[in-house]
Design a protein that fits this description.
There is one protein chain. With 251 residues, the chain is α/β, with parallel strands linked by helices. The protein has one domain (34-246): 3-Layer(aba) Sandwich (Rossmann fold), CATH 3.40.50.850. It is 35% helix and 14% strand. Strands 1, 2, 3, 4, 5, 6 and 7 form a seven-stranded parallel sheet that branches.
């Protein structure tokens, strides 16, 4: 097992978490590192133009293109995810995409009741907004799973895909930190997977929600670290020689 190291690197939550909160969590024994296993998979959550916008502009400008677009913060993270994606492809480790999709407000149930913007034309299958951003475009061997709710596990065949690939560790990136990333991490941990969230590979429309949810995941559900900290840990895992039977398929 490759262990995640403890460190004193600055974190996005540092300016929001009080000294009392830190003491309470420390005395509770929260936040122990889980470490990486030997067969990681990369889960790329909702890295679509509807969550990024067309280019790295300020969020209020990006929202003129699509109400759910995040703009420059999203594109910063996309650049980091691109580096991680290259590392996974070089190693032959599984890459899986959650592609958020809607065909109307009804099938989203209470989720689209709560967020009506998810039913806009820009979000519908086949639209520009539904497309995975070009820098992270899938390869034919990758798994693409359509999802209609926050967690990629809910109502999908993701567990089957992970078991078939022999995965023991989930590296979760994408959007949003407080929503679909968090819910996927909680479900992944609940199913017994080691979960890792590279903090500069996820994005959210709220700075506070982004920071606090990273903190909470780090305390309860996942190892949270920067990409620069994660890459050396991945170097300690053997690369995978894939065969045609191990290659993924669209889910």
């Amino acid at each position: 097992m490759t262990q995640a190291k403890s460190d004193q690197h600055p974190r996005p939550w540092d300016r929001f978490i009080s000294d009392l909160d830190r003491e309470v969590y420390s005395k509770c024994g929260f936040g122990a590192p889980v470490g990486l296993g030997q067969r990681p998979a990369l889960l790329i959550i909702d890295a679509q133009y509807r969550t990024t916008g067309e280019d790295p502009r300020p969020i209020l400008e990006a929202m003129k293109q699509c109400a759910t677009a995040i703009g420059e913060e999203a594109w910063k993270a996309v650049g980091q995810v691109e580096k991680l994606l290259t590392r996974f492809r070089e190693a032959g480790w599984p890459v899986m995409y959650a592609q958020g999709e809607r065909t109307g407000t009804q099938e989203g149930g209470r989720y689209t009741d709560k967020i009506p913007a998810l039913g806009e034309d820009y979000n519908l299958p086949g639209s520009r907004g539904a497309q995975i951003v070009e820098p992270l475009a899938p390869n034919p061997a990758d798994v693409i799973i359509g999802k209609r709710f926050p967690s990629i596990f809910f109502g999908t065949n993701l567990i089957t895909q992970l078991v078939n690939a022999g995965v023991d560790t989930l590296v979760v990136v994408g959007c949003t930190t407080s929503g679909c990333v968090r819910s996927t991490v909680v479900d992944g941990m609940s199913y017994g997977f080691r979960c890792v969230v590279p903090l500069d590979c996820v994005w959210d429309r709220s700075e506070v929600s982004h920071a606090i949810n990273l903190f909470d995941m780090a305390q309860k559900y996942a190892d949270v670290m920067s990409l620069d900290e994660l890459l050396p840990l991945l170097d300690g895992i053997p690369v995978l020689q894939t065969t045609s039977s191990e290659k993924g398929a669209t889910g």
